[in-house]
Amino acid sequence: MSFWPKQRFLVTGGSGFLGSHMVKQMLDRGSRYVFVPKRSEYNLVKEEAVIRVLQETRPDIVIHLAAVVGGIGANRANPGRFFYENLMMGAQLMEQSRIFGVKKFVAVGTICSYPKFTPVPFKEETLWDGYPEEKNAPYGLAKKMMLVQSQAYRQQYGFNSIFLLLVNLYGPGDNFDPNSSHVIPALIKKCIGAAYKGEREITVWGTGKATREFLYVEDAAEAIILATERYEKGDPVNIGAGFEISIRGLAELVMELTDFKGRIVWDHTKPDGQPRRMLDTSRAYEEFGFKAKTEFREGLEKTIAWYRHHIKLP
Fold first, then answer.
1. 36: which of 14, 32, 89, 226 fits an S-S bond (Cβ 3.0–4.6 Å)?
2. Active-site option among 139, 153, 170, 216
3. Confidence band (pLDDT; 50, 70, 90) for 265?
């Protein structure tokens, strides 16, 4: 516990979905200086803003959570923006952190960086075995470049940077905007809205055959906490729950937990995305003792309860 009070932290994206849970856990561990830059004041896509925030805060450790991200629809609509902004934030923040003498850089990447047809469970060693799923590729590759940069900087400069690969997150405080949300909040919003209006069906993208893995946001925050404190190597590390569920199975479970009694209409004109996703999470446990704690059904119930408490139905 003495680690946390002694460090000055800069947490990009610290006011976002994952970041807010992360900062809370840092404070619970005794952190005394945690700076969370606001995008309105520090646009980290711009080099001058990156330099300015590092000059003003002089952090010992940078945890880079900030990302421009969304579901399949948002990725299809914004491939250029998702590539450019994520690439520039990561590259400039790591470079300037090196120049400013930051002691440790924690880069948070994404499961979208894996090849489209990666054998399940995904092992870190297969990360370069093919091209990512096309609709997520600009985002996934932009984030993946932080791994290249991290390992190159470790080799040339001795810069202590680590790289974590996160699966899809969910939980209280998630993004429920239908224009940019991921599948779990989208399904919760659809089912609760349909039940309230007395509708008999909801439409869901794809065939329902694709599988996904989901990690409860508080577990994800704990994983990053443990890696920040204990992990010092250049090898990438998967962060997940180590299970998969089909989109069809997920939709049926959300329907049950939201008491929606209608049916699902599968829109086959819309993409499934990557066929399967599930991580091998053994390295995270072996290297810094992380194992997901929250059972999936329990996490969904908490997420649904949070949404019901915060929404305003018409």
1. 14
2. 139
3. very high
Q: Is 139 a catalytic residue?
A: yes
Does this model's pTM top 0.90? My answer is yes
pLDDT at position 308 is 95
Q: Euclidean distance between the first and final Cα of the chain, in Å? A: 47
Taken as a whole, the chain contains a residue count of 314
Q: Is the pLDDT of residue 72 over 80?
A: no
Q: Output the 3-class SS for the chain.
A: CCCCCCCEEEEECCCCHHHHHHHHHHHHCCCCEEECCCCCCCCCCCHHHHHHHHHHHCCCEEEECCCCCCCHHHHHHCHHHHHHHHHHHHHHHHHHHHHCCCCEEEEEEEHHHCECCCCCCECHHHCCCCCECCCCHHHHHHHHHHHHHHHHHHHHHCCCEEEEEECEEECCCCCCCCCCCCHHHHHHHHHHHHHHHCCCEEEEECCCCCEECEEEHHHHHHHHHHHHHHCCCCCCEEECCCCCEEHHHHHHHHHHHHCCCCEEEEECCCCCCCCCCCECCHHHHHHHCCCCCCCHHHHHHHHHHHHHHHCCCC
- Distance (Å, whole) CA 80 – CA 82: 6
In the predicted model, what is the mean pLDDT of residues 30-56? 97
What backbone phi and psi angles, to 5 degrees, belong to 9? -115, 140
pLDDT tens by residue, 181-200:
889 999 999 999 999 999 99
If 0-12 CB within 10 Å is exposed, 13-18 middle and 19+ buried, where does residue 300 land? buried
- Spell out the domains of the chain, with CATH numbers in brackets: 8-170+214-242+276-293 (3.40.50.720)
